[in-house]
């Protein structure tokens, strides 16, 4: 009979060490945090900075068409509260409805950020739903990749489109969980499962997260990370919600790595009955 020492139970310390080494890798760069956050919709820049700090995020996405990062010298600069020496700035193309607009916006971001290559591509179909226009998204992705950009791409939860974007060379695919700003959570986990099964690049849920449990579910499904803005900025207490989202993503990732118990139709005893006195 093997001794207990032959099959040691991993200590909590060892498990936590494994978690600290479990990094998110995007375009060859490793990040400790798997939570990515936006910078819009806060009441002011002070709240923006405090919420982002509380989230523990290392990648912060910025809408170039709506946010001043130096192009307007007489206006408050977002980079004063989100300094590039502390955060990876992820320019995004929010507000673009054509491939041409999106490509032009990414090139502007590259100029403003001294040759920065990592961008988040989103090309929207209409103002009512903010659903992605996948045809224009594919066009823009092809141009940007050829132009040397590292493209993280917002897309629908269509597994075929996600597969095509990864095959083109996008460094991360970001299917929506629900419509942008809806807070509806993961509306179609089945499509997301297919995308994750076929993934050759990191898959991050983008859009639709409403509260901490939504973020945890995304991570438990196996997503590499979660990007959110409205869920934090529109909360009654954004800084507190940012903290909650941080813990939710960490917990979801740990649960995914731990492996959940199988679902059973009927109950089973918590303690084994074999060998007990009758």
UniProtKB/TrEMBL annotation:
**Which keywords does this chain's UniProt record carry?**
Cytoplasm, Schiff base, Thiamine biosynthesis, Transferase
Pathway involvement of the protein, from the record: Cofactor biosynthesis; thiamine diphosphate biosynthesis
Domain of life, per UniProt, equals Bacteria
Q: What is its EC number?
A: 2.8.1.10
Which SUPFAM superfamilies does the UniProt entry name for this protein?
ThiG-like (SSF110399)
- Which Gene3D superfamilies does the record match to this protein? Aldolase class I (3.20.20.70)
Q: What GO biological process terms does the UniProt entry carry, in alphabetical order? A: thiamine diphosphate biosynthetic process
**Pfam short name (any one):** ThiG
What GO molecular-function term can you cite, just one?
thiazole synthase activity
The record's section on InterPro entries has: Aldolase_TIM, Thiazole_synthase_ThiG, ThiG
* Plastid is among the record's keywords: no
UniProt KW Thylakoid keyword: no
The text of the family note is:
Belongs to the ThiG family.
Q: Which HAMAP family match?
A: ThiG (MF_00443)
The name under which this protein is listed is Thiazole synthase
What is the primary gene name for this protein?
A: thiG
